[in-house]
Amino acid sequence: MSARADAWLDSLGRLVRDTGRARVRVGDIVAAAGEGGLAAAILIFALSNALPSLPGMSSVLGAPLLVFAAQMLLGRVAGGLGCVLAMLLALPLPRVNIPIGMSLSLLSFALRGDGLAVLLGFVAGIVSLVLAASVCWGAWLLL
Q1: Comparison of pLDDT for 114 and 67, the residue scoring more
Q2: Is 91 buried (19+), middle (13-18) or exposed (0-12) by CB count in 10 A?
Q3: Domain spans in the chain, listed from the N-terminal domain onward
Q4: Phi then psi for 64, rounded to 5 degrees?
Q5: pTM higher than 0.70
């Protein structure tokens, strides 16, 4: 493992062994991860949405993603698209959770400065927005 990963695991170990804490919050884990903590948190929550799961899980996991994407919005343009996608992820729309989760996973690399992943994330995000709009339009036509 790299030195950065070892340092992160050591800081997580200190959080676990800290007997003065009743709970370990997501914010504590992000702070322990340092500069890559926000990207790691977005990636973890987005990847869990990119996999097929139980109904309703996207709403539960989409709320923290909205908070993290809003933090990303403070520093990067990709955060705007991330916020919109996280809001759509929290809605109970069929067949759009996996593409949105994949888009958010790719956009998490914007915090690490990977240009190709950001470009792919923007393209996948736009495709996800079109897919969500078509699902909404189709539902409207059925009414």
Answers
A1: 67
A2: middle
A3: 39-142
A4: -65, -35
A5: yes
